Amino acid sequence: MLCCCVKSENNKKYAELDSKLERKMVESRRNYPGHRRLKSMDSIIMKFPKLREGLRNIRSVFESYDKDGNGTIDMEELKKCLEELKLSLSEEEVKGLYGWCDVDGSKGIEFNEFIVLLCLIYLLAKPSSESSLESREMGPKLVESVFDPIVEVFLFLDKDGKGKLNKADVIKTLNNEDYPLERSPSHVTNMRFEEMDWGRKGKVGFREFLFAFIGWVGLDDADDCI
């Protein structure tokens, strides 16, 4: 019974985080005008090389906090990381974000989950007056250069501006008739949306989009693009 209550409480907490992030994405349309400059799939793909470089730099940060070298960051290592980044997060907030990003339930944050966690902190958390998500290894310019373009891509795909991606709008955007030479085959666009749509509900929040988008970008120049 206790286990069920804990699970229910966690689900409620994660649903609240999802709602908070959805509201944040609606508000972000005013703060990220760059999404208006995106016109087609090619304009997104052109951002991939710079994003890969930024992700590789973040991987170096991840490895520096993975003290035991097991490829994951546990709760204690994460706390040290957030302390170094001078983020004023409560114990409850840290646990909430940790559980929200540990999507495979491995009790450890892997690198792709670490990227998502940092991005969510960047968007949702209130940094202390001393810092804005920076450390000796990772300054604000690196954070902005990686996460701001990703937010802009989400906003570009979120045509109705409601903070979630609608399947019909995403497919229409990726197959924009104004750019016939850049259109993706319908089976590809459907597959890309399904990679994001974990619940198969036809709606995708920023967290799910972020996990999928990181995979599309890849970490190596030889990785396949969308």
TrEMBL record:
<protein>
    <recommendedName>
        <fullName>EF-hand domain-containing protein</fullName>
    </recommendedName>
</protein>
<dbReference type="Pfam" id="PF13499">
    <property type="entry name" value="EF-hand_7"/>
</dbReference>
<dbReference type="InterPro" id="IPR018247">
    <property type="entry name" value="EF_Hand_1_Ca_BS"/>
</dbReference>
<dbReference type="InterPro" id="IPR002048">
    <property type="entry name" value="EF_hand_dom"/>
</dbReference>
<feature type="domain" description="EF-hand">
    <location>
        <begin position="53"/>
        <end position="88"/>
    </location>
</feature>
<dbReference type="InterPro" id="IPR052591">
    <property type="entry name" value="CML21-like"/>
</dbReference>
<dbReference type="GO" id="GO:0005509">
    <property type="term" value="F:calcium ion binding"/>
</dbReference>
<keyword id="KW-0106">Calcium</keyword>
<dbReference type="InterPro" id="IPR011992">
    <property type="entry name" value="EF-hand-dom_pair"/>
</dbReference>
